[in-house]
Amino acid sequence: QEQLVESGGGLVQPGESLRLSCAASGFAFSFYALSWFRQVAGKERELVATITVGGATTNLADSVKGRFTISRDNAKRTVYLQMNSLKADDTDVYYCRCINRNLWGQGTQVTVSS
Q1: CB-based contacts of 23: which residues, under 8 Å, 6+ apart?
Q2: Which among 24, 31, 25, 61 has a CA at the least distance from the CA of 46?
Q3: Bridge partner list, 82
Q4: Lowest mean pLDDT among 8-22, 40-54, 98-112
Q5: d(CA 72, CA 79)
Q6: Which of 52, 71, 75, 83 is deepest in the core (most CB within 10 A)?
Q7: Which residues neighbour 52 within 8 Å (Cβ) at sequence distance 6 or greater?
Q8: Distance (Å, rounded) from C-alpha 91 to C-alpha 111?
Q9: pLDDT by residue (tens digit) across 23-71?
């Protein structure tokens, strides 16, 4: 069964960091680009970051550039989202996505609040 499973969300204070992980199974992970999206209730999902097959190229939304980093470990079949200098506006459910396999993870909640 093809699936993506996110972990690492939680409650942090503004300025703190979190690292999200997305573990893949059931498909040839190393052959696909992976992305992170986020969504707050009632709004469309926003593309946050994308990483190419080999990890050489990454793209980040303007709202997170300089604070977030996406990376991958093909041996572990895992993609990461390192989130630094978190703000209240970053509060969302974060989803892992493999566009070419049409896969979504179940999401992990990130809450930034003092």
Answers
A1: 4, 5, 7, 76, 77, 78
A2: 61
A3: 19, 69
A4: 40-54
A5: 4
A6: 83
A7: 33, 58
A8: 5
A9: 999 999 999 999 999 998 788 999 999 999 988 888 999 999 999 999 9
Neighbours of 65 (CB within 10 A): 11
> How far is it, in rounded angstroms, from Cα 83 to Cα 17?
5
Fill in the DSSP letter of residue 43: S
Q: Which three-class secondary structure state does DSSP give residue 90?
A: helix
Lowest mean pLDDT among 28-37, 52-61, 75-84, 85-94: 52-61
| Of residues 45, 23, 49, 34, the one with CA closest to residue 93 | 45
Instruction: Take residue 4 and report the two structure tokens written for it.
Output: 């993506």
* 56: Cβ contacts below 8 Å, ≥ 6 apart: none
